Amino acid sequence: MPPRQAFGNITEFATEEDLRNLALDLDAMRVQSLLICERVLGPHHKDTLFRLMYRGAAYADDLRYQKCIDLWRRALEIRVEKDSILYSDTCFTAQALVRLFVDLNLKALDLAVNSGAPRYEDEPKFSDVLATFKLLADRIAQSRLLLEIRPVYKRQQESFDRILKCLTHLIYLLVETAKTEEEEELVRQSVTDLVKVNPHSASTGDTLLHLCVSRLNTIKSSYFADDGQFIFPSMSVIKLLLECGAPVNARNESHSTPLHVAANPYNFYSALVELLLEHGAHLDQPNRNRDCPLTLISINPANSICLTNYTSLKCMAASAVIKCKVPYVGQVPATLETFVNYHDPAF
To answer: What is the mean pLDDT of residues 108-125?
Structure first.
């Protein structure tokens, strides 16, 4: 078996003398047990994967986080290779790894803010975050196509939606851990490639932008206590998505746009709403319940945005056409017809 980075490139002992030299090193012996397990049972065996996750959790309990990350990344790579991202155990592994990344990053931020010290050595590495992001993102398009095959299994839909949430958190981590111009360019290119795929959640049709403006976008894992940590809405992530071409007026299953989600009181943040408006979000685009962002924002006492600056005459005209039921289909150019349709809650 070739040396693996997850095991520190350690190889299995070959002689009795090698074993005796390792006998008093408990950690080295545990690594040897993982090597032997993978060789005998194979990397895809359930016991091999269980041992990787268990040993990684033990490292995390001992505050040896990088060792944990290495093993959990290896487990995730095997899961993706063996099954797919639609498999519940793959989703479970991805959630555990991403949640560890997030917790380590938040600890690093807290330390930097409270003590003024530089971010500590246990913060997640950019290379680990990027590798995990690419591992999941490269399989999103194929997995979304698999969900189109009937019958559709609810468990697979839920796994896909959780992986999509993992990807939004990984984008946040990429933004946080990128330190050089080269790394920032890698982030931009990787996110652009994902945006071009235009993934939507299987259950609600939410896009990446819908997820990133919502406080409900969280990751839960049985390996961690649910302490109510929220990183979304994230201005840096939303700005990056918009710059990478994320459709600002995309609609989900309820015909709500990201601005609808951002305008809800539990998500509302004036700078966030203003950012979406600056990138062309429509204030008067109704959802299936006939709710418009304009109404939601106007009645919010925390609002400080002058909405008149973002209200266009063409939007007002389109809304009037719909309200007065003026026939327009086939009587206006196709591009204009599509624009008017956006203002029709029944479309």
So the answer is: 69
